[in-house]
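Internal tracking record. Fields below are filled automatically when a chain is submitted to the structure queue. Please do not edit lines marked as system-generated. If the sequence contains nonstandard residues, flag them in the REMARKS field before resubmitting.
Queue: standard
Priority: normal
Entity type: single polypeptide chain
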Amino acid sequence: MIIRTGVSRRALIAGAGVTALGVAMPAISRAQGDTIKIGHLTPRTGFLGPLGEFAVQAVDMAIDEINAAGGINGRKVVVKTYDAAILQIQQAWTKACSDNLFFMVGEGMALDSNQEEIRLGCKLPAVPGYSVSAAFASAPLAYQPVPNPANVLVGEGAIQVAKLQPEAIKKSATLAGNFSATQETRDKVVAAYPKFGYTFLPKSNFEYPITGLADWTPVIKQLKASGATFVYWSGECNNLQKAMQAAKLNNYAPVWQTETNHYEAKCAASNTDGAMNGLYIRMAFTPFEERANNKAVDDYLNMVQQNGQRPTQLGMQASSAFLLWATATQQCGATLTRQCVLQKLANIHQWTGHGLHAQTDPGKNGAPQCGMLLQLEGTKYVRVTPTQPNTFDCDPNSVVIVDTPAVRAAKLDANGIAHEFG
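SYSTEM-GENERATED OUTPUT FOLLOWS
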């Protein structure tokens, strides 16, 4: 089945509604006055670079846009930004908890499990741009625009690659950073992909230092010697480029697949030597290249251009998170409490960020069952499947329940809510 998206994100300001079903929520309340104070916490500095800078900019631009239109039910939105600096997440959340915030909105951090004891201790609700760890991906007091449940992998991308490369997937391996975020992602892939015909070799989980390697040849030679013809990569683009350059130099040409974080202008621009050509990238968002077919994406890009900023995937994710939070907040009307917003979020079961991405179910932490594949060709991203712009392949059989060490540590209850931290 192919699904098309593309409703204007400006529909929020016009008061667009969403599907609502009653769901009980915990008693937690903090009423608001003439302004609504939210927080945004993300790594703006650290050894992996300013990963969160563009998410911060997206939230700021969305707030300016809504405030210019009169705010949310007459209330202006103000935001306070915190820098988690990759490894300083606990200090940042401790400060956020003391700052009388209403919600945390649009954030995203690789080590988000490190925040949960502090966040839940001060009962600070969150609508993150994305989650990584099992503890936060299925956390209480949190709703995501594009959910990533701890015990679920949606394998639409795996299905698509399997159709395109049926022989390659018979000898599969992974290459992941020795970092909890990349390892948890890798573990879900290893647990789920066999359902779609992938066979992982006896020695198939290879790792590298998350800060990178001076020489990638040894690990590439190990991959080559294993016989792997398909490699799932869990990491970031700078390291992947170096790994694939080493593979090219060593006459090793497996099929490579990775995640949406590699859809980034800097990543494409760096591929001048073509070493990353053919890389498959799983997507649930409509790519920027298709703005002519999607009003919401065009609106996002216009907003970014008007503010002199650069469009990014993280920016779109943060925008969808802000729109989700703002939609629920708007529905609370004059009586605005945390409990009301949480209730409204629990009632939202159809969400596309007003057209930015495939449909999800934030209220039930339901991941998108639709997706598409891009490939890198030189310095450009090219749609692979489905071929029609602004569409996604959808398959309910792509949803796989997984059991990994991180899932077990998260202590999910019968409703899929994590209780690792209470």
